[in-house]
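On clarity, I found the account of how folds are encoded harder to follow than it need be. Since the whole study asks how a given chain folds, the encoding of that fold should be made plain. For the editor and my fellow referees, an illustration may be useful. An entry of this sort, consisting of the sequence and the corresponding backbone structure tokens, reads as follows:

:::
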Amino acid sequence: MILNTISAPHNYNSYLDLLDLNGTMAIVGLPPSEQAIAPFSLLNNRRSILGSMIGGIKETQEMLDFCAEKGIVSDVEIIPIQKINEAYERMLRGDVRYRFVIDLNSLR
């Protein structure tokens, strides 16, 4: 399973090709334009796509509980608010491997 949270234009087919037999890609990121999907990317190995709008508090809590139970974690880079401009410059250069998360303790 792939949880696709990308909200920018990208090649769905390259991610579908990572799925194994009966794999599913769940799309929750909403790109600004339609994305092309090659039928063979789905037909090969019986892959599927499902979509979902972001749920409410109940669904979000269920998802967090599921992730905690299964040991699913995200890869993030925690930065202090004082480095927000540097993080932005790195993003423009494509020098970001993980999602930036601002440490709110740095606001004090």
In short: The mean pLDDT is 90. Residues 1-70 form a domain with the Rossmann fold fold (CATH 3.40.50.720).
